[in-house]
Amino acid sequence: MNDSEILSVAEKLAASLDVIVEDKQAILKNMRKTNCPTITILSNGNYTLWIDKYYIAYSKDGKPDVRYVFVSQHHVSEELTEICNMLKDCEPSDYITLSGIREQMREALKSMAASGEDFYLAESEDAGDHRHIELSDEPWLMTLCPKCASQFYDTPSQYIRRTDKSFKETCDYCDSRQGFEYEIVRV
Known about the structure:
Layout: H1 3-17, H2 24-31, E1 40-43, E2 47-51, E3 55-60, E4 67-72, H3 73-89, H4 92-115, E5 119-121, H5 124-127, E6 140-144, H6 146-153, E7 158-162, E8 169-170, E9 178-186
Antiparallel strand pairs: 1-2, 2-3, 3-4, 4-5, 6-9, 7-9, 8-9
């Protein structure tokens, strides 16, 4: 996709979120910087929207979730590398957000492989009117060893409980010890 097409997708998303895009030329100029493209960040107090030549994403203010609407192959590779490094040292409260982004990047890679394109664009129902969508407060399922689970117990923004799954698997947090599946719910 070229810069104008990316901006068109961003404008449609901005309109659905009631985020005002005031200076389209400035956004295009930011996207076309050759050495280091600048990210344009727009907000209306309810949503924050990020526009870059490599991705378009948004989040509901006050919620940790980030949703990608457009992502380039360049950004997927960069983001997956960064997330792998960040997951090793992140706080439990950040783990869910980073894991969600990682899953979106993996889905984008699968979509790109299937389509032969070097970018991922969310389906129209995912990229359309987002005002009715509440970003996820659904429980997050994770396999945690006892040591990693203990870090989640002391986080005031969420609570944790073990599911009925009775067998052990490799911990999703440390990726080394064995543990049980837990449900983590944001408060």
